[in-house]
């Protein structure tokens, strides 16, 4: 060190000396190394014993050397640079500086250098502390800390440290993984953030007990909430953390027992389900030990076998078994119970309380019970009904096989696509195939090729349809090409509720269909004949009736055209009457035929059917040959129409294509010809009768008019009175709406209105003066005389209303019966008005004619007494 002695005040000098002594003592005894350097040169001026010991150099090896010249500070350039920085900033510090000792060891030091003044001169003091051991301890602590943390992080259980406030200080990876929070998220949270509200008080109470010094060795279970809100079940073991004897927080281990809790819940649920299953199962659940002793019997045994469970506990399960099954089942049971987990099944019979035997199917499984005993759990199902059903099914299958082989109905089994799986002998006979030609191929081969695709689609539609037709008909083609009509019905085979195959039952109905068609034709023929009969009975028009016959000929026989030629006995000619289906009027315009002329004349003459199958090949009929140009007919039939042994005409049939009729067709042709002949005969007779009837009617009418004229002359009536009142009465009656038939009887009644006067003596009828009462009494008898005379004549019975009732009056004061109002026939009411009117306005020997106005007044005055008011009103309108 530099000499710093100067002349100073003795008092001050003493004080400095004491300070120097104290500094030196500290310098010499310091537990850190100290170097004193010249601030300007860096030369070492002093070194304390601790540094000499630390680095192993002697004092002399330090003094009068620069810092970087000492072996410990061998990095010369770095030391020079550091010295320059120290000179500039007057302070430098290294927290971890490596130095090498003289013996070559490397130590770590904390190096602090600072500049300060001593007697106005700058001095550098370097304080060097050996931190090698400290660093070793820190490293060891860090290693221990890392090992501890690795151990914590590798633990499958969650680990946490809490402050007393509940803030989370530390969590391990397992904790983060379990609850799906990151470590950063955890460290920003409070323990109460993850504990559901219902567990807060429980957790606080437990922490309070820990703070109170209670040693809680048992873990507590909690529900805690994860990041996504999912609830976790954890088992937590907590302990206090101490510092200086004081509790500063908590630490704990949290084990996620969610899986265990779920397993426990599942086990409990499983046990509950098992108990519910055994208690409620319709099957018999039995637990037996190795010797067959029953330890448990489910309640279903009472329903199945009639025993109560407690009756059988402790008994041997094999005691109820049928002797024939005993040995076999015991051997199976012995094999099954050799090892836990073995399972086997068997069928056996058990005795019911009522003595009957029930068939069971049992499944046994062996396991070790809680006492470690090998035990058998047997689940038995009553299959008595199933066995009976199987036996019935086998019997049914046998019967079905017999039916399948022996039935006359064709049967086939096919899959959803229509591929035939099986066919019975009747099926092969019907279609003419061998079994190998059918099985494995589409059922559609039985249809004409052009409709096979359509048949397959229809098959698939029926297969999938909910609504199945009871039966359906189709035309099939046999292997030899012939066609048959069949009637089919279908049913389905199902498995697990799904249709897997179709069973088709097919019956050949060709003969039946032909019979039905024949019956249908016969029905149509009967209907046609009925319509012809209706035409015959409802019309007197021969052309209309024969037209109806020809319409049925064309429709029922399926021909192109037909006509009827009428035979005239007087001229012996056949003339065209009516025709149907012709394109031209050639036949209608053709000349009449003589008997024996042409095909029709030949048919009439020979009274036999004439058939010409090919008209074009014949040239012997000019009438038909000329018509063929416009008609193009090929075939011809001529049928004579004969009634009561007489020729009535000829029915001709024409076809524009070859005609090859069967027996039914020919029979119906003859029937239609007979109907036509009958129609001609009936209508001819009707015409003759009509003419005779008309002539007779004319004679009747002439006779009646003669009678009325004679009566007028006898009664000295005005010439033509009866004729006038009759005609006027008919006109007025027509205005009242009477039918033409009724008007005929009105006319006849008018002509004969006074026919009864033929019974009145001439001296009374022709008396010029007043009649006496007796004479009037006789005169009033003439309506009765008329009734007695005419009622016996059927022809005039309906004409009696006027002769019998024309003297009746509206008010009932008339004669002969005193009829009143509507009791009087309408014809008589009308005639009464007209008769009085004509009498009043006509000249009579005993009085002059009245004027029309006076006669009108008389009629009006007599309304309601003598005359019907409505008739008088109508008559007045008639007069106007």
SS summary, helix count: 31
Helical proportion, percent range: 40-55%
Overall number of domains: 6
Q: Distance N terminus to C terminus?
A: 183 Å
Rg calculated over all Cα atoms: 72 Å
**What is the CATH C level class of the largest domain, in words?**
Alpha Beta
What is the molecular shape?
A: elongated
Q: What is the topology, as strand order, of the major beta sheet?
A: 23-22-21-26-25-24
User: Strand pairing plus helix content: what structural class?
Assistant: alpha+beta
For the largest beta-sheet, the strand count, sense and barrel status come to:
6 strands, antiparallel
Q: Strand tally, please?
A: 26
- Compute the average pLDDT: 83
In terms of topology, how is this protein built?
Blueprint lengths: L9 H20 L3 E6 L5 E4 L1 H7 L3 H4 L13 H14 L1 E10 L5 E13 L2 E10 L1 H23 L3 E6 L4 E4 L1 H7 L3 H5 L9 H15 L8 E6 L5 E13 L2 E11 L1 H23 L3 E6 L4 E4 L2 H6 L3 H4 L10 H14 L6 E9 L5 E12 L5 E9 L1 H23 L3 E5 L5 E4 L1 H7 L3 H4 L13 H13 L7 E6 L5 E13 L2 E11 L1 H29 L3 H16 L3 E8 L4 E8 L5 H4 L3 E2 L3 H9 L3 E3 L9 H10 L3 E9 L2 E10 L7 H52 L6 H15 L4 H12 L10 H4 L7 H7 L2 H9 L10 H5 L20 H15 L11 H10 L7 H11 L1
Helix pairs in contact: 17-18, 17-22, 18-22, 23-24, 23-29, 29-30
Question: Could you please describe the fold and organization of this structure?
Answer:
Strands 23-22-21-26-25-24 form a six-stranded antiparallel β-sheet. Strands 2-1-5-4-3 form a five-stranded antiparallel β-sheet, with helices on both faces. A five-stranded antiparallel β-sheet has the order 7-6-10-9-8, with helices on both faces. The longest helix is centred in the C-terminal third of the chain and has 52 residues, at 663-714. The chain is an alpha+beta fold and 880 residues long. 45% of the residues lie in helices and 23% in strands. It has six domains: 10-136, Beta-Lactamase (2-Layer Sandwich), CATH 3.30.450; 155-262, 2-Layer Sandwich (Beta-Lactamase); 281-388, Beta-Lactamase, CATH 3.30.450; 407-508, PAS domain (Beta-Lactamase); 515-686, GAF domain (Beta-Lactamase, 2-Layer Sandwich); 715-879, Hypothetical protein af1432. It contains 31 helices and 26 strands. The chain is elongated and about 220 Å long.
